[in-house]
Specification:
By secondary structure, the chain is mainly alpha-helical. Helices cover 86% and strands 0% of the residues.
């Protein structure tokens, strides 16, 4: 996604909020790097739209608190697949 960084930041934030998406999922969807997503929604968005920034911050904080659970499930799935072979 090319274009103005300010517009991109708002689009990324709206996607994260609407889909409860992670930074990684958002980066994949918009075909940009994770660091670009993080910079847009953490730095740029704060100066553009503080209300939207607070909403994104809540979703990202929730994702951060749940990441160890997703990682454990991914590892479990991996070893279950290996066991079936």
């Amino acid at each position: 996604m090319k274009g103005l960084p300010e517009e991109r930041a708002v689009s990324l934030a709206q996607y994260i909020i609407e889909n409860n998406a992670t930074v990684r999922q958002t980066a994949k969807k918009f075909n940009i790097s994770k660091s670009t997503v993080h910079k847009d929604v953490s730095d740029r968005l704060k100066t553009i739209n503080e209300g939207l920034f607070e909403n994104v911050k809540q979703v990202l904080e929730q994702n951060k608190n749940e990441r160890h659970i997703r990682g454990g499930l991914a590892t479990k799935t991996k070893y279950e697949r290996l066991r079936q072979k």
